[in-house]
Amino acid sequence: MNIINQVVLHCTQYLTASEMAEIDHEISIMETREAAGIEALKIVQANRGWINDDSLTAIAQYLKMSTAELEGVATFYNLIYRQPVGKYVIHLCNSISCHLTGYNEILQTIKQHLAIDYGQTTTDGLFTLLSNVCLGGCDKSPVMMIGDKHYQQLNVEKTIEVLTQLKNLSDEGKNI
Asked: Is the peptide bond before 84 cis (omega within 30 degrees of 0)?
């Protein structure tokens, strides 16, 4: 009979002091520890790029909530990534306003220019393409969000220009 030894880290061994300090701040301004769930996920994701199972478990343990509860939060909130993503995550708005003003053309441009489809990451690890139900820019559609920046009134040329600029920035070792 094979015995598998499982090592379970305590959340304070997994989360960094800086992450815990930021989470503690969020806890201090919320009514309950659990209410800091989204912010805690965002803090850890900002440092690690995405939320893997170990991160989720450690955050849940730190917030004194079940992993299942926090998983529900993580999977509901579309800006929490539960799998690895590229350096630049493209959220392309697929609302009715965007559909009426050129969404399909922008989608095809991104897919062809980067050689990826929804949910995929470029081979160089730079870009991941995701859909988003609404980015709140209906009066300036079509819209995409990369990082915390919105790109509005997109057309083919502008879309390619944005993607090229980001690639060039990355090639130079800079961030937006």
From this structure: no
What's the sign of the alpha-carbon dihedral 21, 22, 27, 28? positive
Please, what CATH class does the domain formed by 11-76 belong to? mainly alpha
SS3 92: strand
User: Which residue ranges does the chain devote to CATH 1.10.10?
Assistant: 11-76
Q: What is the pLDDT of residues 29-51, one digit of tens each?
A: 999 999 999 999 999 999 999 99
Distance CA 14, CA 83 (A): 18
Residues 6+ apart with CB under 8 A from 152: 137, 140, 141, 143
CA distances from 105 to 90, 102, 111, 113, 171 (A): 15, 5, 10, 12, 27
pLDDT tens-digit profile of 111-167? 999 999 999 999 999 999 999 999 999 999 999 999 989 999 999 999 999 999 999
- Contact status, residue 43 vs residue 22, Cβ threshold 8 Å: yes
Q: Model's pTM, two decimal places?
A: 0.84
Eight-state DSSP code of residue 30: S
Distance CA 100, CA 27 (A): 42
- 79 contacts 85 by C-beta, under 8 angstroms: no
Structure tokens at 3: 């015995």
**In terms of CATH, what superfamily is 88-171?**
Glutaredoxin (3.40.30.10)
